[in-house]
Amino acid sequence: MTLHTIILAAGKGTRMKSTRPKVLQTLAGKPLVRHVLDTCAAIGADSTVLIYGFGGQMVKQALAGYDIIFAEQTEQLGTGDAVKVALPHLPTTGKSLILYGDVPLTTENTLKQLVAANTAGISMLTLEVDNPFGLGRIIRKNEQVIAIVEQKDATDAQKAIKEINSGIYCVDNALLHKYLPCLTNDNAQGEYYLTDIVKLAVADGVEIATISPEFDFEIEGVNDRIQLANLERHYQAHQIRTLQHAGVQFADPDRVDIRGRLRCGQDVFIDINTIFIGEVSLGDGVQIDAGTIITDSTIGNATHIKPYCVIDGSNIGSDASIGPFAHLRPQTLLADNVKIGNFVETKKTTLGQGSKINHLSYAGDSEIGREVNIGAGVITCNYDGVNKSRTIIGDGAFVGSNSSLVAPVNIGNNATIGAGSVITKDAADDKLTLARSQQVTIDNWHRPTKKT
Ligand code: UD1
Ligand code: CA
Questions:
Q1: Phi and psi at residue 209, in whole multiples of 5°?
Q2: What is the pLDDT of residues 132-154, one digit of tens each?
Q3: Cis peptide before 324, with omega less than 30 degrees from 0?
Q4: 436 is in an annotated binding site
Q5: From ligand 2's centre to the CA of 193, what distance in Å?
Q6: Can you list the domains of the chain with their CATH numbers?
Q7: Does the keyword Lipid biosynthesis apply (predicted)?
């Protein structure tokens, strides 16, 4: 059996008041439709057809790299018409999941269950809600689904039904090919309703299976910025709860955002106003203090990230101490027991075990050995305005405060650089190197006096 996915994404999303198509608005830092596509990839769909309308060029651009078939729905004549646009790309065997580019959070687990529930031709995702207004109602007779009636077509008795149609189905392709061409638009909205395939299938004796999602947010769509923000909060709360169940301590679960995937060891503590972006991994006993933003990085066991650090594309060893106010930029590789202090910036830099840069420094394009001490205010001058060059510092070196290391340059093992030096040539192992003018005292000098 092949499994296909059809994603409806032709809606403009007028209420977003945006130049971007709705499905490209972001939730947890990722376009809505990419949440859906990533879930489709996770369940192993054999093909995906995306139905687009407004902003097709932008949608295609944003989804370059995904293996999808784009099919244009030129006029929005209803959900039934939208799925019909996918038919030429759909085999006549196998099953299709029908999903929506603006319903981002249906889980892999729910979709797998939905596929498994389709044993007779159609399965659908329904839910009992307190306020069903505006949604399609599930009409049952002797427990069996016999139809879906839209709000605008419903009788008062039907409007009282609380079981609603999520709009998400798994349908045999043979049935889609059979019923979609038969849809008509003689209803209150003059639309081709996809929901009418249920009626047609029931008339053919097909039993409709239904399942419900584990979480309500799985079927929630996004039409405006308020719904988007609400769904974001639901999603964040869900992710944090999952991590709490796994043993992570959050000072305040409402003040942490995860925009990607956060993996944590045991006894991790995460303080308030922290943001995790992309793939972040924290070892056992890691402590992340307030205000820190970590992107695509790995942090080793028992490392302490002090307040207000920005860490991007970095790999930090165990028992390290970073910040407060440190900026680790991509390709920063720090070994165990490294200390990076306040107002230190690193980029494309490795530090060996036990090395320290404690205050007000920039280390870029550099390779720093073990047990090195970089004094306050040391700068690697890695850029001459045209090219970047490397600075190599040997094990056990001590670089005095406020020195400038003009790259390319090598500082030897156990070398000592006198404070305030501008080093333009290699410094020898084990020796003191100074590069600054001598201190002089002028005996007969007087301070200027005010002219009258
Ligand atoms: C549809 C269902 C309704 C269900 C509801 C859940 C139908 C007839 N009704 O409502 O039973 O409770 O979803 O939200 O299917 N779209 C297109 N092309 C179109 C029309 C819609 O791509 O021509 C896309 C929209 O961009 C949106 C989705 O389909 O992502 C649903 O459209 P919307 O108008 O919100 O749903 P309804 O038809 O009102
Ligand atoms: Ca509609």
A1: -90, 145
A2: 999 999 999 999 999 999 999 99
A3: yes
A4: yes
A5: 9
A6: 3-219 (3.90.550.10), 239-433 (2.160.10.10)
A7: no
